[in-house]
Amino acid sequence: MTSVTVKAPGKINLALHVGPKDSAGYHDLLTVFQAVNVWETLTAEDAPEFSLTVTGDVVLDEIPLDENNLVIQAARAAQRVTGHGGAAAFHVDKKVPVGGGMAGGSADAAAALIAVDALWGTNLSQVQLLELASELGSDVPFMLEGYTQIGRGRGHLLEGVESLPFFWVVVPQPLHLSTPLVYSTLDELRGDSAPALPTAPSQALLDALFAGEAHALAQELVNDLAAPALTLAPQIQSVLDSGTRLGALAGMVSGSGPTCVFLAEDADHQARLADGFDAEGHYVLRASSPARGAHRLRR
Ligand code: ATP
Questions:
Q1: Average pLDDT score over residue span 267-271
Q2: Smaller CB count within 10 Å for the chain: N or C?
Q3: Of ligand 1's atoms, which has the minimum distance to the CA of residue 255?
Q4: 86 — phi, psi (to 5°)?
Q5: Is 40 in the pocket of ligand 1 (CB under 6 A)?
Q6: What is the pLDDT of residue 21?
Q7: Which pLDDT value is given to residue 20?
Q8: How far is the CA of 245 from the centre of ligand 1 (A)?
Q9: When comparing pLDDT for 1 and 50, which is higher?
Q10: Ligand 1 atom 27: the closest Cα is on which residue?
Q11: Burial of 54 (0-12, 13-18, 19+ CB in 10 A)
């Protein structure tokens, strides 16, 4: 095989509860992830050494093209585990906003694992892929699995959840919030009093997902990182206010932000909402969920 193409989705966190830090300094999480059909497309071709190019209609300036890129890190990790001596020339076409809390870098890492495994014929098992993924980053295992998952630990311990489709309007912001900075701002806001984590997501949230009830889901969206994201980027509040004014069922900061996501009743409502944001001068993406995890395109 000389070329492999893999698609991987963006994600939103429908619920994101942040608990105390563990001994390694990571916050303990209880989250419900849902993959959305905003796709990264990664192509890997046989090559004598690693290289990476990136295109896309998102702001690309901050993406490292060297060994710091998660794509190259994922390929090196796969090389280490398999002992394979080859390399690859990667190209990523990005649709997920960079540094926007939708885990585009993690999606690229998951895509790269699947791509090199196929390109090199190394036949890694799903368990091996998931182990490699959790070394690369907390959100990478979710990007392999996709759909809807409860995430525990650092978000890397997954449990699948049933969900009917939902319709969203995604409003990326022209700024980048560093995820570590958002967490440390949460710590500052909380002082010494991190609340205990709930042991499970609310039953009402799981019921709303199972039944495809957008109105019920709107009542259950929760994000502990919204307060620190708004502290660091207060201008996000006006975007959330626009969503309320335009009739979104709910609006929230996505993960560590600053991208905002708005829940619509159905596809027609999603189109009206997107037009409303567009008319106010916002760049918007329409997304539906749940979407498949990283997967190879076979032609
Ligand atoms: P998360 O919520 O998982 O922190 P995010 O969506 O906020 O993710 P990403 O777009 O994944 O943020 O990227 C955050 C940073 O990671 C970027 O600013 C960039 O420096 C670095 N990075 C490394 N590899 C990639 C990649 N393949 N794509 C995008 N960013 C990458």
A1: 98
A2: C
A3: 2
A4: -80, 180
A5: no
A6: 85
A7: 87
A8: 31
A9: 50
A10: 105
A11: buried
Label residue 192 by pLDDT band (50, 70, 90).
confident
Domains annotated for the chain, with CATH where assigned, are 3-161 (3.30.230.10), 166-289 (3.30.70.890)
Q: Please tell me which residue, 58 or 17, carries the higher pLDDT value.
A: 17
As a whole number of angstroms, the distance between CA 203 and CA 69 comes to 38
pLDDT confidence of residue 55: 97
Q: How far is the CA of 98 from the centre of ligand 1 (A)?
A: 6
**28 classed as catalytic:** no
179: Cβ below 6 Å to ligand 1?
A: yes
Catalytic residue among 11, 108, 117, 224: 11
- pTM of the predicted model, to two decimals? 0.95
The answer, yes or no, to whether any atom of ligand 1 lies below 6 A from the CB of 258, is: no
Please report the DSSP string for the chain in residue order.
--EEEEEEEEEEEEEEEEEEE-TTSPEEEEEEEEEEEEEEEEEEEEESS-EEEEEESS--TT---STTSHHHHHHHHHHHHH----EEEEEEEE-SPTTSSS-HHHHHHHHHHHHHHHHHT----HHHHHHHHHHH-TTHHHHHHBSEEEEEETTTEEEE-----EEEEEE--SS---HHHHHHHHHHHHTT-PPPPPSS--HHHHHHHHHT-HHHHHHH-EETTHHHHHHH-TTHHHHHHHHHHTT-SEEEE-TTSS-EEEEESSHHHHHHHHHHHHHTT---EEEEE--B-SEEE--
User: pLDDT value at position 100?
Assistant: 83
Verify whether residue 192 is a known catalytic residue. Answer: no
Which entry of 7, 95, 108, 139 is annotated as an active-site residue? 139
